[in-house]
Design goal:
Blueprint (H helix, E strand, L loop, with lengths): L1 H8 L3 H17 L9 H20 L1 H29 L13 H4 L1 H16 L2 H17 L3 H13 L17 H13 L3 H10 L3 H22 L23 H40 L4 H8 L1 H6 L7 H13 L2 H10 L4 H10 L6 H14 L4 H27 L3
Helix pairs in contact: 2-11, 2-19, 3-4, 3-11, 4-6, 4-11, 6-10, 6-12, 7-8, 8-9, 8-11, 9-11, 9-19, 10-11, 11-19, 13-15, 15-16, 17-19, 18-19
Length: 407
């Protein structure tokens, strides 16, 4: 018992444990049907999350595997640089007087990974990962085939691409299933942006870990917020097909490149707009109230930083980053994160807490993206938008708490 207490008290781990209960409590209080919350599913999902996190962070084989994957991603960054150097020449050299130029170092990486993910999907490699993970998770958590498939796929493809895999089922999916799809989209990162954040200096091993443990976490939080009360069509092991729509390898690469370009342009435009608006709002707030937007974020999200186990000296800065992520987007938050002075433990916890698309603008992205695939569900998507944002945010915070118990 004394050893257990010493372990919990080390580095504020007891706060991470309290944070887990607090997050589950918030989800339960926000549930639309508290009497139907499946307690067995909660414990099963938490057990899967802890097992995955322990495997990745604490076992020799897990550390070795994910270190190798991390090195593989680092090698892929160099491949992305090869195309960028051909187009931009010496401007890609960060040792020059101009340093890192965002549009030259980051945007090409998004385009490259968009093409790579499309190629891997065409070759069936993505489908293998998704099917294996879904086969493991679905029987344990008792979820339907469609929602499980979309949840796993979200950890690789993103919140508008993953629903394409289940577009033939969307119209007949229950509200609970739709919320799972939305929360998974909010609570995970796509493979292409995960790689981009790694290239910016965010710890890639922990980004990968966050992406994986958010899979059962998304189902856990979504099923607390909206327990299943209907009869899903793909429940009970009914198979869900994953058809590829590209004709050949060249078609896959060109399609992925075009998709990556659109994503890159959207990222660049969003950053320009949001950072400019932040500067405007900051100026107004400083003039009128004497507080900046970051000051407000730091105060509003201080309690979250406290509960996930961030050290006292870093809590104000952590609160600022958590606020930037929810109100603006994770790209802005990670951009600030990379240059910030924090303890190593805080950086790890924030890597998990920021690793998702849960922000207000993504409500519109999901309504537009999923709604285009299934117009008859547009009203449901609109109605569940804020609940999905809450769910995705809680998923990320829960991942940070679980990691906080182990690091």
């Amino acid at each position: 018992m004394q050893t257990l207490m010493s372990w919990l008290c080390a580095d504020g781990r007891y706060l991470s444990l309290i944070g887990i209960f607090a997050i589950l409590g918030v989800a339960f209080l926000s549930s639309n049907n508290k009497s139907r919350v499946n307690v067995r599913m909660i414990f099963s999902a938490l057990l899967i999350q802890f097992a995955l996190a322990f495997l990745i962070l604490k076992t020799d084989i897990g550390i070795a595997i994910f270190s190798a994957i991390s090195r593989g991603f680092e090698q892929l960054y160099q491949f992305a640089d090869a195309g960028s150097k051909f187009v931009f020449g010496n401007l890609t050299n960060i040792s020059g007087p101009w340093g890192v130029i965002f549009i030259i170092k980051v945007i090409p990486t998004i385009i490259f990974f968009g093409a790579l993910m499309a190629l891997l999907f065409h070759l069936g490699i993505v489908q293998i990962f998704v099917k294996v993970a879904a086969m493991i998770i679905r029987p344990v958590l008792g979820t339907s085939g469609a929602e499980t498939l979309a949840t796993v796929a979200n950890s690789m493809l993103g919140q508008t691409e993953a629903p394409l895999l289940i577009k033939n089922y969307l119209a007949r999916m229950t509200d609970s299933e739709i919320l799972v799809v939305m929360v998974a989209g909010m609570g995970t990162l796509s493979g292409s942006l995960l790689a981009v954040y790694g290239s910016m200096g965010v710890p890639i091993q922990h980004l990968l870990s966050a992406s994986i443990i958010a899979i059962p976490g998304s189902i856990l939080i979504a099923k607390i917020l909206m327990p299943e009360t209907g009869n899903p069509e793909t429940m009970g092991g009914n198979s869900v097909s994953m058809k590829r729509e590209t004709k050949n390898v060249l078609d896959a690469i060109s399609t992925g490149t075009s998709d990556g370009m659109r994503l890159a342009a959207n990222v660049a435009a969003m950053l320009i707009a949001f950072i400019s608006i932040m500067a405007l709002v900051d100026s107004i707030l400083l003039w009128g109230l004497g507080y900046s937007l970051n000051d407000i974020f730091a105060r509003a999200f201080y309690w979250v930083a406290y509960l996930i186990g961030v050290s006292p000296a870093d809590r104000a800065l952590a609160g600022t980053l958590l606020g930037q992520k929810v109100v603006i987007n994770e790209f802005v938050a990670y951009s600030t994160f990379v240059g910030a002075e924090m303890t190593a433990r805080t950086k790890i916890l924030l890597t998990y807490a920021l690793a998702g698309f849960s922000n207000f603008s993504c409500i519109g992205i999901q309504i537009g993206g999923i709604g285009a695939l299934c117009p008859e569900k547009r009203h449901t998507l609109t109605r569940l938008g804020l609940k999905a944002l809450l769910g995705g945010t809680l998923v990320n915070w829960l991942s940070a708490c679980i990691a906080g118990l182990l690091v």
